[in-house]
Amino acid sequence: MVLICFNLLRSRLCLHSLHLTRSVLVRQPAELLKNTSSSSSCQISCRAATTSVHFRATAAAPVCFSGSVRSACFLIHVGPHSTAVTRCGRRIHTSAAARALPAPLVWALLKPLQKLVAIVVGRSIRKWWAALPDNRRQLMREWAWQLRWRLAAGTGVAMVIIALLLLTHLDESPVTGRTRLLVFSRDNYMELAALTSEAYMEEFAELLVPVTDPRHKTVELIVHRLAKCNKDIPEVSDMTWTIHVVQRPDINAFVLPNGKVFVFTGMLDAVADIHQLTVILGHEMAHAILAHSAEQASLSHVVDLLSLIVLTAIWAVCPRDSLAVLGQWLQKQLSELMFSRPYSRRLEAEADQVGLQLAAKACADVRAAPVFWQQMELADNLNGKATLPEWLSTHPSHKNRFTQLDRLIPQALDLRESCLCPALPAADPRVVFTKSVRVLLEQHKGRPEGANASQLPHSLA
Ligand SMILES: [Zn+2]
To answer: What pLDDT sits at residue 111?
Structure first.
């Protein structure tokens, strides 16, 4: 209990952060640049700006926090060795900022140690209980029974304290306005993201596509367009988006919380057109804008801390170490299935929704979004790739993503129209794809087995 309170308070006092990964996708780059230029200027006013807390700061300039509930103004004077903060006539002095590891990283390093302590404590309780004489055990049981109401009250108070601590860490998600738990701050995750991006840059140093390469220029064009057309969202306009295209066949792309965009060439080969790529990059940018990494790490942090109580109990109650190890494994799997994976799928669905909105405001043909997931599902089926049931996966199934995006298309088209985007072609990509698949499957009927995937058009492989 003390450990949990300490960790929550420590994270509350720290700054915040974020991290992010992503993966996915399908096929052909060909006409990448062709259609984007058709939708020229962005009408940022097409959507109401997100209501969130704003933060503006420059050296020796006023720093204002403003929100819907309250507002306060600070004046910060930054010197070489100290910082002075003035608020409403009062002056606060702070010492020079100390260099420290990002809180999420510190937590990740301490995590194994916390588990070890829980195991040792639980095991020690079991050994102590086993070594007690029978009459002492009976006395202990009677003592516990007499104090049962006090113990229950203590447990209740502990639960209330934990609940209050969690309530003080609630935050409102940008764009969607969803209430969420955020133990780690965005700043903490920015520090971690800086370390992560340095590591990626080192790993991909020899694989980066030159900035003059058309593939790099294409990704850059799309990302900058998405950023420009969504600059009414503070989390978009405040971010510096940097593009890196990596020469690797993996069908993958991700955006770090600090705006570093990494796209593998395998992804560029996989998308069908620039509209699909726009939606995919919108999805990845949405993860960064919404600070999903910080949110997911926050949930994981709290679940892990509460799990320490369960872990201690497992090692205290199980009569043998082997059973305790089995119990620990089961507890970890249950925690994954009940908390981590469902939450991850929820965040993916939210990134799909927000990414579609970003793409709509950038005048992409959002109807291409569900087609992409149809392609993914078809490619998996034709290649005989085994897929995990959704409840075991960190991502929604292709079918569910297609269904959700398809349901959101009318709303996205309205948003696109409100942005004064050019009219879309009459041919709906979803209809075109369905017809193409029908023709394709008819052509493949009667062909010998094994001649399927390799003979598919590139766009479907
Ligand atoms: Zn994602």
So the answer is: 82
